[in-house]
């Protein structure tokens, strides 16, 4: 059970962090209240704590999981009250989105490769696009973000070498790293190209389409096809590829790797299922569903999960399968859900506890994944829009 917010903030801007702070905890209280299992007063109490200090509006320090967009996502999800705060946040998010787009296009026009934080789900324009779709369902600013992502998918020549437009010269932590000479191509949902793919595809399914968007979705899917690792038993993707792997045209890593929402096969399979649904590509849809079903029915892969979190643990796998099953054209993923949810409940009861009360790695995320198991039409679990799972 998540306790009441502290009377004083334990650290600067703790209260505006969707991953670990008040916005994610508010989502938990909102969904429990909608399901009749909690009180709206708890959500309002946490919202007051979240708004106790000025909200960060610096475009260099704001994304879906931090600052004004994170706070706005949580308040909008409540669907009631906070009209004055939302009006201020709307203006703030619009301004910082325009500023971030301007900087991104300056970088594109200069022919430089991006940092992950420019475009990814957690910190970048993909995450801001998720918020705009969640908030408005469309609009010119969202279309501007989608147009930028379309351009991001186009190859670029850097130092005489043709690379994907999202290639980073940094390491996975988004800073120079001698262990990653020449940088890397990030594939995962949280910080990789699966995030833009899922947003572009989800927007198409909501009839929000800009020039070149279907072609961009097809381009990313074709790129992912280059890096799928396919044996007689397993089909999987690495979370990222190195420049030597890019040059060699093949993955040198062992796998299957940890199945997770953030970097593993489940998140990548869901992104490609969304792409297939947007494109009407039945073969790709079946392949994505087959891969996910094989992954979650393999004890050796599930044994690699070491915690219960949404980000890289069992709760994230269960929520990914739940959303994928709802969009599946056969019953195999639905058949997996009772076993997976029972496993989640059993491990949550008897296994090691999570550290913290946040959304991505804490108890709020676990609670939401468990609540979604019993969700009804009266308690829609749209909170996972921020994970790009809701299609």
UniProtKB/TrEMBL annotation:
Molecular functions (GO terms): metal ion binding
UniProt-listed Pfam families: LANC_like
Highest rank taxon of the organism: Bacteria
GO biological process per UniProt: peptide modification
Statement: the UniProt record of this protein carries the keyword Metal-binding: yes
UniProt-annotated binding residues for Zn(2+): 262, 311-312
InterPro entries cross-referenced by the UniProt entry: LanC (IPR033889), LANC-like (IPR007822)
UniProt protein name: Lanthionine synthetase
Organism, as annotated: Kitasatospora kifunensis
Organism lineage string: Bacteria, Bacillati, Actinomycetota, Actinomycetes, Kitasatosporales
């Amino acid at each position: 059970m998540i306790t009441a917010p502290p009377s004083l903030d334990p650290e600067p801007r703790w209260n505006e962090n969707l991953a670990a702070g008040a916005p994610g905890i508010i989502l938990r209280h909102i969904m429990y209240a909608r399901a009749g299992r909690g009180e709206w007063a708890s959500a309002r109490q946490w919202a007051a704590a979240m708004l106790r200090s000025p909200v960060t509006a610096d475009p260099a320090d704001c994304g879906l999981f931090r600052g004004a967009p994170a706070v706005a996502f949580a308040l909008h999800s409540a669907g009631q009250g906070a009209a004055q705060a939302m009006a201020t946040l709307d203006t703030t998010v619009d301004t910082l989105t325009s500023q971030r787009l301007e900087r991104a296009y300056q970088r594109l026009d200069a022919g430089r490769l991006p940092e992950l934080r420019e475009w990814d789900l957690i910190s970048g324009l993909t995450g801001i696009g998720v918020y705009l779709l969640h908030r408005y369902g469309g609009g010119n600013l969202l279309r501007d973000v989608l147009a930028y992502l379309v351009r991001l998918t186009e190859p670029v020549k850097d130092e005489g070498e043709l690379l994907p437009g999202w290639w980073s010269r940094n390491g996975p932590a988004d800073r120079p790293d001698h262990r990653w000479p020449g940088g890397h191509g990030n594939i995962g949902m949280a910080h990789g190209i699966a995030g833009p793919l899922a947003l572009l595809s989800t927007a198409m399914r909501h009839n929000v389409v800009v020039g070149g968007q279907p072609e961009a979705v097809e381009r990313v899917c074709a790129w992912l096809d280059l890096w799928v690792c396919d044996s007689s038993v397993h089909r999987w993707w690495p979370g990222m590829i190195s420049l030597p792997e890019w040059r060699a045209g093949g993955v040198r890593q062992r796998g299957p790797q940890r199945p997770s929402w953030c970097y593993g096969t489940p998140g990548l399979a869901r992104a490609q299922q969304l792409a297939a649904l947007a494109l009407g590509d039945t073969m790709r849809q079946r392949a994505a569903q087959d891969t996910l079903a094989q992954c979650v029915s393999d004890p050796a892969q599930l044994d690699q999960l070491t915690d219960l979190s949404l980000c890289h643990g069992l709760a994230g796998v269960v929520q990914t399968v739940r959303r994928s099953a709802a969009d599946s054209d056969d019953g195999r993923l639905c058949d997996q859900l009772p076993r997976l949810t029972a496993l989640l409940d059993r491990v949550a009861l008897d296994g090691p506890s999570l550290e913290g009360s946040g959304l991505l790695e804490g108890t709020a995320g676990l609670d939401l994944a468990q609540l979604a198991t019993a969700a009804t039409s009266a308690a829609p679990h749209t909170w996972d829009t921020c994970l790009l799972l809701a299609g």
